[in-house]
Amino acid sequence: MIAYIKGVLREILDESIIVEVNGIGYHIICPNPFIFQTSLNKEIKVYTYHHVREDAELLYGFQTQDEKKLFMQLISVSGIGPKGAIGIMANIDIAQFVAAIEREDAKYLTSFPGVGKKTSRQMILDLKGKLTSMFSLSTPDMSKDVAVQGSKDQYQEAKAALAALGYTDKEIKTVMPYIQKENIQETDAIIRKALTLFAKK
After folding, report:
1. InterPro entries, from UniProt (predicted)?
2. Which of 190, 165, 185 is nearest to 175 (CA)?
3. CA 126 – CA 97 distance, rounded (Å)
4. Which of 8, 41, 98, 166 suits a disulfide with 131, CB 3.0-4.6 Å?
């Protein structure tokens, strides 16, 4: 089991990063590779999960231990493999996700890519009661739930609008981490900020 990799970030690809350690480049699949953008050609530490199957050995990587732990819980759910779990992780807020599991919010869970009603029910069945103590998180109140869900919807709307303007998914993913750090909430403001960042590239 490879617990983590510490090395120099050499490349950022659409779904992965390349980290060089002692002359060896490790290909690591990540939920959002572009979150590492500011660390290009710098030393980083990536928490990893080493997935072995008959036809391949794959490394999945995360910024934090909590992200890795949640990924491990997701792949323990019947019907969710590493690829599906990475898709969920790319759009996740851990505190919000834990709250949704605890209140059995299937509607929230089915908002993730590849998660239908059957999978959401299985996630609740397999994970309820396990996550709150694992992450030492307090459950947000309902007003906060609504606010976070609203923020997520606004980012989705902004991404769709930028795509309609002709920007590629890769370009959009490149700027979103910067916008999220500034906690911009309004759809129009997200779009304006993204256009400003595109103009600087």
Report:
1. DNA_helicase_Holl-junc_RuvA_I, NA-bd_OB-fold, RuvA, RuvA_2-like, RuvA_C, RuvA_C_sf
2. 190
3. 14
4. 98
